[in-house]
Amino acid sequence: MTIRIVTPAGTKDRNGNSITALRWARILKGLGHRVFVARDYRGEACELLVALHARKSAPSIRRFKKLHPRKPLVVALTGTDLYRDIRSSAPARGSLDLATRLVVLQSMGVKELAPRLRRKTRVIYQSAPRVKPRPPRGNGFVVAVIGHLRPVKDPLRTAYAARQLNGANIRVVQAGRALGSREARRARAEMERNPRYRWIGEVPHWKARQLLAASDLLSLTSVMEGSANVLSEAIASSVPVVASKISGLIGTLGSRYPGYFRVGDTRGLARLLERAASDDAFYRRLKSGCARLRPLVDPRRERAAWRSLIAELS
């Protein structure tokens, strides 16, 4: 089968959607299909279109269904789709109706959809290969923050929380491109006033994975999230997580995970960081909570989910 994947971010932006699109392309090629990835669909020959982002990919979705009304169309829903756009954007809602199947990346995503749409929705958790943790280097308790600096990620919340720590030997290392001059200025200013915080800018994906594997903790502070590749990568590499208590992260971590804080709650996050660094029993609870999720992010599971979905569509 010839499959085209469209992702508005393109494949060179190194953001979550591009990482997801390229991983899906590898999976589908491994299942024996011919796969092409592009920013949009312009009428090229294919037997299946997979579109990331209901709103941003809406022109490609409409064009594909106009040219090929009987061919299958899969629309994968991002965080902004699920938690904003399908309520406010007519093109996004139109994409839901045109799709043969909808894909969400964690179990809570299904609950955001109207009952009539749930029947055609499939949950496909994002997978990640394991990167072996490095041995400790004796340089304190390292908290990683990984992702581009943009408002929806609340990117400096962990740095602000680190200011409130008392005595704990905690360092925050943040990797990701600032998607605007304001964000870059804020990150540089934070480094000047906050000795616990270091922003290293954008790094290749492999290097971000090494940074994560060498860290003691991942901090996820998103305001809105469809899921997060870095969450799957942390789980795969046995790095525990503290996370904002939002639907898109609860859908993977589960409602009883002990490492949540309220969105924007700097003090609550500071308490979690301090406790993770100083309370061995609590840190083990975080680690065991993530360890039980490792089967969810096994690449074999994601591959099997796509094989099953393609079989449905065939």
What does this entry show, briefly?
The chain folds into two domains: 2-126 and 299-313, Glycogen Phosphorylase B (Rossmann fold, 3-Layer(aba) Sandwich), CATH 3.40.50; 141-296, Rossmann fold (3-Layer(aba) Sandwich). It has 13 helices and twelve strands.
Provide key terms for this protein:
42% helix; 314 residues; Rossmann fold; 17% strand; 13 helices; single chain; six-stranded parallel beta sheet; alpha/beta; elongated
CATH class of the largest domain: Alpha Beta
Helix fraction by DSSP (H/I, runs of at least 4): 40-55%
Please indicate the count of domains: 2
CATH architecture of the largest domain: 3-Layer(aba) Sandwich
Rg value: 20 Å
- Count of alpha and pi helical runs: 13
For this structure, what is the CATH homologous superfamily of the largest domain?
Glycogen Phosphorylase B
Point out poorly predicted stretches: none
What's the rounded overall pLDDT mean?
A: 93
Number of strands: 12
Describe this structure in words.
The chain has 314 residues and is α/β, with parallel strands linked by helices. It folds into two domains: 2-126 and 299-313, Rossmann fold (3-Layer(aba) Sandwich); 141-296, 3-Layer(aba) Sandwich (Rossmann fold). 42% of the residues lie in helices and 17% in strands. The longest helix is centred in the first third of the chain and has 15 residues, at 16-30. The radius of gyration is 20 Å and the shape is elongated.
